Amino acid sequence: MKLHWSQKSSYNDGKFTLTVPFNFPEFVTPAIRQIPKKERIQLNVSSGIASGIVYQAVSHPFQESKRDGGHIGLLYEANVMTWSHTDLSFSYGVSSGNIFGSALLQSPSLYDIDQRDIFCIYLFPGSQQGKKVFRKEVIFVVDISSSMRGRSLESTKNAINTALSKLSPEDSFNIIAFSDETFLYCTSMVLPSEESIERASEWMSKEHSEGNGTNMLIPLQKAVEMLSNTPGSIPMVFLVTDGTVEDERKICEWMDKRMKNGGSLCPRIHTLGIGKFCNHHFLRMLAMLSRGEYGAACDLDTIDSQMQKLFSKGLSTILANITIDAFDNREQIEVYSSCIPDLSSESPLTICGRCQGSFPDTLKAKGILGDLSSVIIDLKIEKAMDISLDKISARQQIDLLTSQAWFSENKQLEEKVAKLSLRTCNISEYTRMILLEKGKIERDTDTTGARKVSKKGDACKLLDSAEPKKILLQILTVGFGDLLATAENICPGSEEEILPEVAEMLNKATSNCCGRLCRHCCCLCCIRCCSKMSNQCSILLTQLCGAVACVGCSQLCALCCPQEG
């Protein structure tokens, strides 16, 4: 069985880390007599960096088989009696002390609908200790409506307390709480002394008159107004909410106008959405327009960690107002992000897009450092020979274009996202995943695995017919928010049902299998949305999917049908 997947490497303290689980449940490994087996792991690293890389923290005794600049080949082979139960872990660092970057360029594949070249520009913060970060003026804008009661609000308070303790003495802060009313901790910015942080913690723990509504525009306007005159510092707003409001596009239009008319360092809006009732695409768009960062905590257990990650990233900005000289020619170059976010010492920055015609031989990135001096960084152009840039950039492209399609209400952008989702097998708001019985699928597929549909109704007929058997999988995207749930102050997570343990599902499924189902291999297909279904139905079908999937999935293909309803 061969598996293909894509995952994001974690980045911490100047090192990238890849972790692959090898500790499988017992029922996954067949119960056979103890005979020697050969275990083999081949690991090829293409860092996209011309300079050398240093690897460390390797979980298995790899032997280096090749090394060429930013490319490393590692091999592990061993005769074992039982398969490894040690998760594969591999870390590597990039040897550079200063901020640096490069650009990768790649021609599209023959089957790519978009025949423009793909580029990926990245900037690394470097590993130099004691980098000068910006002096910060920070305002936390926190939703305290009734739906935030309990774990959501407590986790938010704890994360803010931790963030306040990390501020420098020359920084300043404030807190604005909102529901259908707005509450200010202080009428002016406050220095982060031990006394002021303790008072702020007590103020957050105090009972405010929690309203039943959510008015987001007024507190955001108050925060931005308080940060309108902050010379020598970078102003930041951290917005935390679990709900949706009706004037979200109006908020984005206001911020877009504010950025265009603002000074050199306009307020950055860093956003975090809790649960699935908030409009995550609005929050991403608001952050994008202001050069901020977006984060999501779809699970209550991840609120604290995701908030800490967002706060740390925003508060460790080392390069702001980044521009790339070649991007001035917008007719030939499309950048997926409408505004380039700032570079943080916590993580590298990636900028992807497409270009028509010849790409410049050299690029220059410009920005402002923490001491407010300007810097120019030369970016070397390299051909990406063994890196699939279209697959690497697909997730970022889908997310950013979906937010832009929502903001502009552009149907053409929605269609573009749907086609990209089908071609790259990435989930999107405009596609759905379905499990089809492979033996019943016609063989009229193209080279990408996409099912050809000749007429508008063909795909719908396929779904409505008795054959092939199909299972519509649970919606895995974040959605565009839920105004009704927000108005009714439904708490995040309260509507979710607990799914059976995966191991229990698979054991039940395999116990009655008797080999009969194994003759009918199944495949996953991605289809255009043609129907709506309740979460309860989705959960039920997901359970059925787990039972069918025990026999193994053979291929990923795509099926397109018109959107209905």
Could you please describe the fold and organization of this structure?
The chain has 565 residues and is of the alpha/beta class. Among the domains are: 10-93, no CATH class; 100-129 and 321-387, no CATH class; 136-149 and 161-298, Rossmann fold (3-Layer(aba) Sandwich), CATH 3.40.50; 398-437 and 477-488, no CATH class. The protein has helices spanning 151-165, 194-205, 217-226, 248-261, 280-289, 303-315, 389-408, 411-424, 458-464, 483-487, 502-511, 535-549; strands spanning 10-12, 15-20, 37-46, 53-56, 63-68, 71-80, 88-94, 100-106, 117-124, 136-143, 172-178, 182-184, 234-241, 268-274, 294-297, 317-324, 333-335, 343-344, 349-355, 362-369, 374-383, 431-437, 450-451, 470-472, 522-528, 553-559. Strand 25 (522-528), helix 12 and strand 26 form a beta-alpha-beta unit. The chain is globular. It starts with 9 loop residues before the first strand and ends in a 6-residue tail after the last strand. The model is unreliable at 452-457, 459-465, 497-507 and 509-565 (pLDDT under 50).
Q: What distinguishing features does this structure have?
A:
single chain, 565 residues, alpha/beta, Rossmann fold, 8-stranded mixed sheet, 26% helix, globular, VWF_A
Topology:
Layout: E1 10-12, E2 15-20, E3 37-46, E4 53-56, E5 63-68, E6 71-80, E7 88-94, E8 100-106, E9 117-124, E10 136-143, H1 151-165, E11 172-178, E12 182-184, H2 194-205, H3 217-226, E13 234-241, H4 248-261, E14 268-274, H5 280-289, E15 294-297, H6 303-315, E16 317-324, E17 333-335, E18 343-344, E19 349-355, E20 362-369, E21 374-383, H7 389-408, H8 411-424, E22 431-437, E23 450-451, H9 458-464, E24 470-472, H10 483-487, H11 502-511, E25 522-528, H12 535-549, E26 553-559
Parallel strand pairs: 8-21, 10-11, 10-13, 13-14, 14-15, 23-26, 25-26
Antiparallel strand pairs: 1-2, 2-7, 3-6, 4-7, 5-6, 8-9, 9-19, 11-12, 16-18, 16-20, 17-19, 20-21, 22-24, 22-25
